[in-house]
Amino acid sequence: MITMRQDAQQNRQKILTTANQLFREQTAANVTMAQLAKAAQVGVGTLYRNFPTKGDLFLALAYDQLGSYVSQQRAYLTTHPLDRPALKHALRAYLAFRENRYQVLPKGSLEPASQYYQRPDYQDLVHLFADLIQGADPQLAPAAVTFKADMLIAFFRSDSYALQRDVRHYSETEILDQVMTILFPVSS
Amino acid sequence: MITMRQDAQQNRQKILTTANQLFREQTAANVTMAQLAKAAQVGVGTLYRNFPTKGDLFLALAYDQLGSYVSQQRAYLTTHPLDRPALKHALRAYLAFRENRYQVLPKGSLEPASQYYQRPDYQDLVHLFADLIQGADPQLAPAAVTFKADMLIAFFRSDSYALQRDVRHYSETEILDQVMTILFPVSS
């Protein structure tokens, strides 16, 4: 038996998944809420109850994907050691997440950065990166570990990422290689 | 003889210098344009002609100080070699600039980051940092030099800097030391 709560949860997830698909095919700003409701096979009322504005939808999509990213990496780490390859694996997946965000959602910040830094989602991401950074370099002092995690996240925020893609013309792989070389050189 | 143009330039500079002083003493948001005009000894009309809104004033103040910072560092480098101590000297002064920004101007971005990244001021700062980074490590590939400069600037943007000060409780000196250790380790 599906409870109402599960049903509501499923609708919400269906909307987000469909929105991501639609936004990949067309520019997000051009997709109307009516089109999205139809494609997701939910009523327009259901859509607006979940996301009163498109800004709310964009933000929910970004955080939904960030949450999935962190969960997937945590799952990966239950069967893999916390080492440098695991860090690189996690950063490659993070770049894929940033790249999707860059392709799919409107350019620029969706909310003030100060709000972002206070979210539990941000904390979860910092902790994930910190665990990986510490795992890759067990000698590193805890303060330096958090510092590196913060630095990574600041560098990958949407505008800074867009600068690397649009102006510096780096691919995801080139960004990953530079970050690994600069922040996590193989100890000699 | 002082031409009108010089006179206008002097008024503008007097307003910016006075604004910085006033904003250090009181919260920037509480200072009225009338108070500022009086303190700077210019007419209210002159003030508004230069800065139609307080947002314009904040932005002009930030860029005026960034411009001064870059000029001062370029002047310093005419009599000092481009080496690791020069890089540290420049970063210490940059942190003082960020700290003043953090103390004096409203929290958060004054403009979208994408605008900031397109400004000549940003290019000047990247070039300054790139010259210093290359000087400190002549072996580093040019692409990695620019990448490090971008990374530094992204990390020091206002919200990220505020995170380090407010949440991580680092002092300017601690931030400088972490950055030097992580991004510019003394080659062994």
TrEMBL record, chains A, B:
Residues 9-69 form the HTH tetR-type domain. GO terms for molecular function: DNA-binding transcription factor activity; transcription cis-regulatory region binding. Keywords: DNA-binding, Transcription, Transcription regulation. InterPro entries: Homeodomain-like_sf, HTH-type_TetR-like_transc_reg, HTH_TetR. Coiled coil: none annotated. Residues 32-51 bind DNA. PANTHER family: HTH-TYPE TRANSCRIPTIONAL REGULATOR BETI, HTH-TYPE TRANSCRIPTIONAL REGULATOR RUTR. This is HTH tetR-type domain-containing protein. It comes from Levilactobacillus acidifarinae DSM 19394 = JCM 15949.
